[in-house]
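GTP 3',8-cyclase, pasting as requested.
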Amino acid sequence: MNQSLLVDQYGRRLNYLRLSVTDRCNFRCYYCMPEEGINFAKRADLLSFDEMFRLAQVFCGLGVDKIRITGGEPFVRDGIIPFLYRLRTIENLKDITVTTNGTLTARHQSVLKELGITKLNISLDSLDATRFHQITRRDSFNGVFGAIMTMLEDGFDIKLNSVVAERKNVEDILPFVELTRNHNLAVRFLEEMPFNGSEHFAHDGWDHVKILEHIKMHYPELDGVESGPSSTSVNYKVPGYVGSFGIIPSFSRTFCGTCNRIRLSATGELRTCLYGAPNANLRDVLRNGASKEELENLLLGAVAKRAKDGFAAEKMIPHSFNTSMSVLGG
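Structure tokens follow.
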């Protein structure tokens, strides 16, 4: 199948599934959840790997050809590696990628390479060990950064995701750009989003415009880097540098017009927009005995009603942003 059948009312074809395998994480990043954690889902409420595999087959049968494994932290769930082997058997699935915090990737590096899963997005919000600890509430910087360097040497395609916020890590923006001088990786600066698991969120002004202006003050000459038609980031290179950097307007939501993503949480909640309400719970539908055809019709119907953008999706519900990103699925 060359084109996705998952088409919304604005003609956007969805071919990219973000599949969360767990809501649990071994970090407590301030922008994701409170220090004490959240009420994690009971094991019985999580999709089993068999259920996730069946749903992945249905999605791919409708034209999804890329699946990103997210969490929580995907590698904290037992059974993730056998599941990745199973995903590799799905016809029409061209690309499997993973978003991780990098603490557990070293132990799986050889298996991931064997599977051809060499595109990893790693959350890294600071290049300073003290700030890293303050942000993640964990003392793991050396292990994470060491794993990143090892994987780069092993030929992995690494993107570093850094959430930018005042009084947290603004000092790291320029060092991250400088990291691309000699390392063939991509840094992505993200606007902070309101999904922090608490009732308190106020955007601090570090939007995509301000981030770029800050970088240009120190690197006035930048080359644009061509991005894919559904890219969420606007990408650049410092002339002569090996790597690149980009900026993702995740709160400003300027990329909604070309969004090709659909999300499935670890508990089965289907979302056609991160900022919207769940469209259905596929776990419950599955466990009630739904057929393949019924699942396909549900997905087609949910996508057909997708909102124009994140702002419209937000207005459609009495939405509270105090849900943790770990629950939503990264």
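Note for the archive: Residues 49-61 form the longest helix (13 residues).
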